[in-house]
Design a protein that fits this description.
By secondary structure, the chain is an alpha+beta fold. Helices cover 25% and strands 29% of the residues.
């Protein structure tokens, strides 16, 4: 079973203020994320993981009838939170995905306090074998 774990950061403006954190706080946060990813990789559970740019840089693309795609600002103008990054993990049961998401949610923020950011967990759709 594959699951996508999506880390949502506060402030839909795209600024969750990580640029305002001390260098030590940013380092602690990144060290935590690298250690988590390394552990998941060693366990054979990590399929992929990436951080994402702020939503101000996101675009929504739609097909049009004239053959040229329509590109607009996005993704969600009214949201208070935005997708900051994701993991795709391969695990044997949903509860393991929830355990990993709980650990990721506790990544340290300013002063080392856990951020407790929401992590959305969704199973990746596997097309039925034909």
């Amino acid at each position: 079973m594959r699951f996508m774990l999506m880390m949502h950061a506060p402030r839909g403006t795209g600024d969750w203020n990580i640029d305002g954190w001390s260098q030590d706080d940013v380092k602690a946060h990144m060290d935590f994320m690298h250690a988590l990813n390394r552990e998941l990789k060693e366990n054979g559970e990590l399929v992929g993981a990436e951080g994402l740019t702020p939503p101000g840089q996101a675009r929504v693309v739609r097909a049009t009838t004239v053959g040229k795609p329509s590109v607009t600002d996005g993704p969600f103008a009214e949201t208070k939170e935005f997708l900051a990054g994701y993991w795709i993990v391969r695990v044997d049961r949903p509860e393991r995905a929830y355990e990993i998401a709980g650990r990721a949610s506790a990544a340290p923020g300013p002063g080392g306090a856990p951020l407790n950011m929401p992590i959305e967990v969704r199973q990746v759709y596997d097309e039925p074998a034909m």
